[in-house]
Design brief:
The complex is a heterodimer of chains A (about 575) and B (about 280).
Chain A (H helix, E strand, L loop, with lengths): L2 E2 L1 E9 L4 H14 L3 E8 L7 E9 L12 E4 L19 E4 L8 H4 L4 E4 L2 H6 L6 H13 L3 H11 L5 H17 L8 E2 L9 E5 H12 L3 E4 L6 H13 L3 E4 L3 H13 L4 E5 L1 H17 L3 E7 L16 H6 L8 E3 L4 H18 L2 E7 H5 L1 E5 L12 E2 L19 E2 L9 E3 L13 H16 L8 E4 L4 E4 L4 H14 L4 E6 L1 E3 L3 H7 L5 E6 L5 H9 L6 E5 L8 H12 L1
Parallel strand pairs in A: 1-8, 2-5, 5-6, 6-7, 10-11, 10-12, 12-13, 13-15, 14-15, 17-18, 21-22, 21-24, 24-25
Antiparallel strand pairs in A: 2-4, 3-4, 3-16, 9-16, 14-23, 20-22
Helix pairs in contact in A: 1-4, 1-5, 4-6, 5-6, 7-8, 7-12, 9-10, 15-18
Chain B lengths: L27 H15 L6 E5 L14 E4 L5 H11 L4 E7 H7 L1 H10 L3 E7 L34 H8 L3 E6 L3 H13 L3 E7 L12 H4 L1 E2 L8 H10 L4 E7 L17 H4 L5
Parallel strand pairs in B: 1-2, 1-3, 3-4, 4-6, 5-6, 7-8
Antiparallel strand pairs in B: 5-8
Helix pairs in contact in B: 1-6, 3-4, 4-5, 5-8
The chains are: A alpha/beta (about 575), B alpha/beta (about 280).
Chain lengths: ~575, ~280
């Protein structure tokens, strides 16, 4: 029985059966024991009675993507599991734990040749007062992974702290019964011992990381309209902002939310809202206003399947086009994309910093996968990007809000500043802010807003550029984790692959990408869209100096490291 | 004759040097006079006032004042003003709108601004027409009024903004006529001073597309009874009112919504504890 660098567990059940609690709790147990981990969820649209699966990957190193295949699949029940289709990959090496009364095994398990062990989790739970099958499942998984009852119980005890001793005892009894039921089950994988780490481990979701990143960057106002899968950002901000002198206001719709943050920022308080594709669509007009009036704001779009209502609970990267091209008129603005749960914090903080520095709106393209995944990570380092807007406080003479400046950024007067009175306007305006329809002012202000972005030195954070192989993979956002892992696998086979993942999607950085691609002889583009939006974006703005292949597929099927590795091997022949 | 007494500053101190784009004879000129007169009476430093607006003829008013202003997108001025006021409660926030901007495209924000009751004043210059786009029916246009977009009239019952405001929770409701700028200024002073969300509808004729509205000066009259603080009484009065009773019609006593804004705290360690294992 050899130690594995990574083990993956999927727990499936009807909505409300507790599959997600079981998986999330395993992540906490494993992190407390020193492992790294990534827990992501996939579920149907129903709040109760749909389908839910917790997907967990534990490792002795940081992980940013799902496995190619799960080592252990537990079905608390299989009532709606067929709806996952190919989302949960199992194979002959997979151990499936199934309840004989939990319905028929889904096709994915039947056809895979996986070893199936029947455990009557429902029956066992019935022997315990208030017992729940998901606690039996937790006991089974914990024992198979080599944890003790105490380790498995600790996160549940914390969760149930305010639910009373009966609930706590029922859960403990369930976990113990699960341990008993797993006594004779053979499981041939064991986690390698984690490397000792002095760093304090954190456990958080990408959405929470996004919210903390915003506060780190200086955001002190948020406007909130709920939408899946972004709501957790707003729910974490609601109590947290008030602890640091900030405010959250619930808006009546996304049109209000974006205008509220523009109002806040006009008054001098850095501001954010978070939404998903349908909400971003509603915010687009006012993002043009923020561009024209030069008001910094941050809008986080946690992307889900689209168009229209699409698949609210599952991931896709198909809002790239609207984020970059959605605004009418020539409206230069910032678009950034985090690459992992932990990078949600950095990228949102940096986006806030850039928006404030450049007096322009920033759209942050997160997605359901990293937004709603929870990861055990090292505490992200403090970085120096704290929003610092150019403000004018001492005004003598006529104030010109939109005065031409060498770097295109003109100091802003905040209400309350004597002599700085001006009217912020979405109409084409003069340097003073006075509406005009003249060609000269129109061109001058278009130039100003373009140049302030183009002239800014974004530094090395514009992209992750790793490796030096002749084959370069260009990807972005949450796909970066799977691409990196594919590159590591290729490297283990002595084939070096270069990974280039822009974090800054707008303004485009053609010279930097050219430098990153220097010497590349093959370019593979990897993205999760149906229309190859990223490929078209690259074609429009960059020179791609070598033959190009594109691996793109819409959500909700995750693109795995194994598939990307295969694409590398196919081209290497 | 103004009842608010002597002016603390001069109205001219609150006027910018921009020449309005309004048509000659537009009621909005008088509304601008009422704004500057009210601000002068209140004696507020112009830099501490923000006039927020959307799109339309009336929404051009911020730049004609010497206050801070925001001329935003169509229909969203109340939302923008809410984000400003909750983070900058030190400012006096006045929102200017028209019947298209405020009651049609911005209708939902009107309901929620009344309900939220943030301390601000909402002035709607109602001329029963879309003027800037040259004469289309608005939510307050009479059903039989003939336009190119609705030949022979819309046949649709007009919106009743004051009743909607009352039902939605506005804390102060008044109607004014632009042709009486001093009286209007008096009401604006009271509206700004009244805590919470104050709604002032100003009948402001569009002489270009609604020349018939020149007759409003003969139709308006001071409301026969003084303002009530009783919502039920106010509802009955407003429901049966013909749209020409002027003055303060309702004064509520709901506490304004203002979340506490503490001193900005840069120590984030207490937030990070949420994530530490």
């Amino acid at each position: 029985m050899g130690a594995s660098p990574s083990i993956s567990i999927a727990v499936v059940g009807s909505g409300g059966a507790g599959a997600l609690t079981t998986t999330d709790s395993l992540l906490e147990t494993a992190s407390a024991a020193g492992w790294h981990g990534l827990f992501t969820r996939t579920l149907g649209p129903q709040i109760r009675g749909g389908e839910a699966a917790g997907l967990l990957r534990l490792a002795d190193h940081p992980v940013d993507c799902l496995p190619d295949q799960f080592d252990l699949l537990i079905g608390i029940d299989w009532l709606n599991a067929h709806r996952f289709g190919g989302e949960i990959k199992v194979g002959p090496a997979t151990l499936v734990i199934s309840d004989p009364r939990g319905g028929d095994l889904p096709p994915m398990a039947v056809q895979s040749g996986a070893r199936v062990v029947q455990v009557p989790m429902k029956e066992i739970a019935k022997t315990i007062r208030d017992g729940r099958p998901n606690m039996i499942a937790l006991g089974i998984a914990s024992r198979l992974l080599g944890f003790t009852v105490e380790q498995a119980f600790a996160p549940i005890e914390r969760r149930l702290a305010d639910k009373g001793s009966a609930a706590i005892e029922a859960s403990l009894a369930g976990i113990k019964a699960g341990f008993g039921a797993a006594a004779n089950i053979e499981f041939n994988k064991q986690l390698a011992k984690p490397a000792p780490s002095a760093a304090r481990r954190w456990l958080l979701s990408g959405n929470e990381a996004t919210a903390l990143g915003a506060i780190r960057g200086g955001v002190r106002f948020a406007a909130a309209y709920p939408i899946t899968p972004a709501t957790e950002i707003l729910e974490w901000l609601a109590p947290s902002l008030s602890k640091v002198g900030g405010v959250l206001l619930q808006a009546e719709d996304e049109l209000a939310a974006i205008n509220m943050i523009i109002g806040s920022s006009f008054g001098g308080t850095p501001a954010l809202t978070a939404t998903s594709g349908p909400g971003l669509s509603l915010m687009i007009e006012a993002l043009g206003l923020a561009t024209s009036a030069e008001i910094p704001v941050v809008v986080v779009d946690v992307m889900r399947g689209g168009p229209s209502t699409g698949i609210p609970t599952k991931s896709e990267q198909a809002d790239l086009n609207i984020a970059i091209y959605g605004l009418h008129g020539d409206a230069p603005h910032l678009v950034l994309a985090p690459q992992s749960v932990s990078d949600c914090m950095f990228t949102t903080q940096w986006a806030t910093f850039l928006a404030e520095a450049l007096q322009a709106p920033a759209i942050v393209l997160s997605d359901q996968f990293i937004g709603q995944s929870r990861a055990a990570i090292e505490r992200p380092a403090d970085v120096a990007f704290i929003g610092a807007r150019s403000i004018v406080t001492d005004i003598s003479g006529a104030y010109k809000r939109y005065a031409m400046a060498a770097n295109g950024v003109s100091p802003m007067a905040l209400p309350g500043t004597r002599g700085g009175q001006y009217t912020a306007d979405g109409l084409t305006h003069s340097e003073r802010g006075t509406p005009t329809s003249g060609a000269g002012d129109h061109l001058a202000q278009l130039d100003k807003r373009r140049d302030k972005l183009d002239q800014f030195d974004f530094g090395d954070h514009w992209a992750s550029v790793e490796g030096s192989g002749d084959l370069a993979i260009i990807t972005w956002g949450s796909l970066t984790g799977a691409v990196r892992e594919a590159a590591r696998r290729a490297a283990a086979d002595n084939f070096n692959v270069r990974v280039v993942a822009p974090r800054l999607l707008a303004p485009v950085q053609p010279e930097r990408l050219s430098a990153a691609l220097e010497g590349a002889t093959q370019i593979l583009i990897v993205e999760q869209t149906h229309g190859a939006q990223f490929h078209k974006y690259l074609r429009a703005h960059y020179d791609l100096p070598a033959p190009v292949r594109v691996f793109h597929r819409p959500g909700p099927l995750p693109i795995t490291a194994g598939e990307i590795h295969q694409a590398i091997l196919d081209w290497r022949q | 004759m103004s009842s608010v007494g002597a002016l603390a500053c001069k109205p001219a101190d609150y006027k910018s040097d921009l020449k309005p784009i309004w048509c000659p004879g537009c009621g909005d000129y008088h509304v601008l006079m009422s704004f500057t007169r009210a601000f002068a009476h209140l004696g507020l430093p112009p830099e501490n006032i923000v006039v927020v607006s959307g799109i339309g003829c009336s929404s051009r008013i911020p730049a004609y004042t010497n206050c801070y202003g925001f001329h935003g997108v169509h229909g969203r001025s109340l939302a923008l003003a809410a984000g400003l006021k909750v983070t900058r409660p030190d400012l006096t926030v006045v929102v200017a709108s028209g019947d298209g901007d405020g009651y049609s495209i911005g209708g939902n924000h009107f309901l929620h601004a009344c309900r939220r009751n943030i301390d601000m004043t909402y002035v709607v210059m109602d001329n029963h027409i879309y003027g800037m786009t040259k004469g289309q029916p608005s939510p307050t246009t009479e059903p039989e009024f003939d336009t190119a977009l609705a030949p022979g009239g819309t046949g649709v019952r007009p919106f009743h903004p004051l009743v909607v405001a009352l039902a939605s929770g506005a804390n102060f409701i008044a109607r004014c006529f632009s042709g009486e700028p001093n009286e209007t200024a008096d009401v604006l002073v009271e509206a700004i001073q009244h805590p919470g969300f104050s709604f002032v509808e100003i009948l402001s004729p569009c002489v270009t597309f609604r020349p018939d509205e020149r007759a409003w000066k003969d139709q308006v009259r001071p409301a026969p009874v003084s303002a009530t603080t009783d919502q039920g009484k106010a509802a009955r009065r407003l429901m049966t009112d013909d749209g020409f009773n002027l003055g303060v019609l309702y004064r509520g006593n709901r506490a304004p919504f203002q979340p506490a804004v503490a001193v900005n705290d840069a120590d984030l360690s207490k937030l990070e504890r949420d994530f530490e294992l």
